[in-house]
Structure formats: C-alpha cells, structure tokens
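**Polypeptide and fold**
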Amino acid sequence: MRIVTRTAWLLLFLLLLAFAAKNTELVALRFYFDLVWQAPLVLLLFAFFAAGALFGVLAVLGTVVRQRREILHLRREA
C-alpha cells in the first residue's frame, strides 16, 4: 500500500511540475489605482491557492479551539 501511495504522490508532483513548466509566461494582475503586478502565471496561481488555503484554515481555527476547550472541560468533569 505504501508503494501505491508514494507512486500516486510522485505522479501528482510530476503533473504539477509539468503544469508549472507550461505556464511560465508573464501575466499582469491589475488592482485599483493603476497598481499592476506582473508575475508568471504559475506563481500567481500558487499564491492565490495558498492564500485561500490559509483563509480556510483561519476560518476553521476558532471552531477547533472552542471544541478542544470543551473536550478538555468535559474530561476534567468526568
């Protein structure tokens, strides 16, 4: 099973590497007030994916901390 998992991870890595190699052209991201940020497409995609993942983790963090406190409180009562 470990070989299958590692092979799947390797294939995913190679697929993403090929995607990054094909998307190296510069793109312009235009903000308000004539602010323009030029970067390779793959870098922008990765940056926005990472920002979305970070916002998702932060959105769940409050609930997880509250549940852990509640579990700790319930264990102390028992």
About this structure: The chain is about 75% helix and 15% strand.
